[in-house]
Design brief:
The protein is α/β, with parallel strands linked by helices. The chain has 19 helices and nine strands. The longest helix is centred in the last third of the chain and has 31 residues. Bound molecules: nicotinamide 8-bromo-adenine dinucleotide phosphate (NBP).
């Protein structure tokens, strides 16, 4: 369809995320141009949008497919706003290069994919040389969120974000106060950095939930009973998207059996968890549970030559005979959620300090309250915990008791426990570690009773 200067926003890349975001935008009364490298996806989306309109006659927006990038770009009102939702990495650079043939100074490119924050930093400076304004925007919520309301984390050029925020606010999910789950996250690569850390937290909580599932399996409980436990866990602060889907998953049958029992125990990853761990090392953040959750997926492709019958290595002591079993489970998962969130916030705070992005962590917590994978009621209480200095982590006792009761591998529960122990420890044994470093390498040490750097003094 050829319309000049008519459409308010354009979307390039119409796989699940781009198609659903475009439908979301059009359903909010916006005029949306869409383009995809493979033409058939554009045609499919036009048909879906036609059906959306039949089902919802009140829709005032429009969705217009273009078969070439030039007419797509020419159809947009100036300054043009183009959202890119293609596979992260080289495809994003390819699309930007193609767009540059037609865009003009002042136009805005919004990379809404899961780009690596370092690529975003590079693209920002490359595009500012060409006077194209660039926004790196994290999106969370998966395909359903993209359609019905995601959490949107835009960062980069402030003025550009302010110009697109009215559109983002229309399509975003709502927080607990009914405000849009989007905000200007910060300058530079802040948006994609925050989204990356969101994914790191997601990895950790998912693995923590899986470990609770494994503990319950180790008690000999049926999938049906385990599902009931997760239904109960999905309450209070733990009421969350990840527990909701766990309950649905555990209730899904394939024939007479549960589908989950037919799935191979090998989890894959697309990279954002690993990037979070790299960033943790780069900025000196203590994020052990995020690292454990990434390696837990790697470990799930373990070398099978050591495998022995599970019953021989796992001590199935009857966890379900522990008093207050439900409460222990709740407390343990509470510790996992809390430690995972705190680690992520710590990492964002350290990066923000070094990069001067101007991130407001309370706002980050707020825009995760709706639409996103790590949304939970915990996020209501998190600012208070994050901003306080004297917290008692009462969850630790339950975590310890559960772990003592089993030989089931619990890398994330253990590391969350150790994380909470470590950040509360009045002193750690690292005086000895530093002494050893100085002993064999003259790496110096600091003293508790004098200022300065010291070395030697060993007998
Ligand atoms: P994919 O990540 O599967 O990418 C497929 C899209 O990229 C198609 O439109 C494809 O066009 C296009 N593309 C590729 Br591949 N190479 C291209 C190139 N060189 N030039 C132009 N287009 C190219 O899509 P997705 O799952 O919808 O995700 C889109 C972005 O959103 C990704 O960055 C993803 O990480 C992120 N994200 C995804 C989710 C999720 O739940 N899926 C959630 C949050 C964020 P074609 O049709 O012509 O092959």
């Amino acid at each position: 369809m050829s319309v000049i200067n008519q459409n308010q926003i354009g979307v390039v890349g119409l796989a699940v995320m781009g198609a659903n975001l475009a439908r979301n935008l059009a359903s909010r009364d916006l005029q949306v141009a869409v383009y995809n490298r493979t033409q058939s996806k554009t045609e499919d989306l036009e048909k879906t949008w036609y059906q959306d309109q039949q089902d919802n006659p009140s829709y005032q927006g429009g969705l217009y497919g273009y078969q070439d990038l030039e007419s797509f770009v020419m159809s947009l009102q100036r300054p043009r706003k183009v959202m890119i939702l293609v596979k992260s990495g080289n495809p994003v650079d390819d699309v930007i290069d193609q767009l540059l043939e037609y865009l003009e100074p002042g136009d805005i490119i919004i990379d809404t994919g899961n780009s690596n924050w370092k690529d975003t930093q590079r693209r920002l400076s490359q595009l500012s040389e060409k006077q194209i304004r660039f926004v790196g925007c994290g999106v969370s919520g998966g395909e359903e969120g993209a359609l019905r309301g995601p959490s949107l984390m835009p960062g980069g050029d402030l003025e550009a974000v302010q110009e697109i925020l009215p559109y983002l606010q229309k399509i975003a999910a709502r927080d607990f106060q009914n405000q849009a789950c989007t905000t200007y996250v910060g300058s530079g690569a802040a948006g994609h950095f925050v989204k990356m850390v969101h994914n790191g937290i997601e990895y950790s909580i998912m693995q923590g939930i899986a470990e609770i599932y494994d503990l319950l399996k180790g008690c000999g409980l049926s999938t049906e009973v385990i599902q009931k436990h997760f239904k109960d866990l999905n309450s209070g602060l733990l009421e969350s998207f990840l527990l909701e889907i766990t309950v649905d998953i555990l209730g899904t049958k394939d024939g007479d059996e549960y589908l989950v029992d037919k799935i191979k125990d090998q989890a894959k990853a697309k990279g954002t968890g690993g990037w979070t761990v790299e960033a943790g090392l780069e900025f000196g953040a203590y994020i052990p549970s995020i690292a454990e959750s990434v390696f837990a997926r790697t470990g799930s492709s373990r070398n099978q030559r050591f495998i022995i019958n599970r019953d021989e290595i796992y001590t199935h002591i009857s966890l379900n005979k522990l008093t207050n079993f439900e409460e222990l489970l709740h407390q343990t998962l509470d510790g996992v959620y809390l430690a995972s969130y705190l680690q992520g916030l710590d990492l964002i705070a350290l990066a923000n300090q070094e990069k001067n992005w101007g991130i407001d962590l309370n706002e980050v917590i707020r825009i995760w309250q709706g639409g996103c994978i790590i949304r939970s009621r915990y996020l209501e209480k998190l600012p208070q915990i994050w901003n306080s200095t004297d917290q008692e982590f009462t969850q630790k006792a339950a975590m310890k008791m559960l772990m003592n009761g089993t030989n089931t591998p619990t890398p994330v529960i253990s590391s969350c426990y150790n994380y909470l122990q470590t950040i509360q420890a009045q002193y750690l044994p690292t005086n000895l570690t530093q002494a050893q470093r100085d002993y064999f390498g003259a790496h110096t040490y600091k003293r508790v009773d004098q200022e300065g750097d010291f070395s030697g003094g060993w007998s």
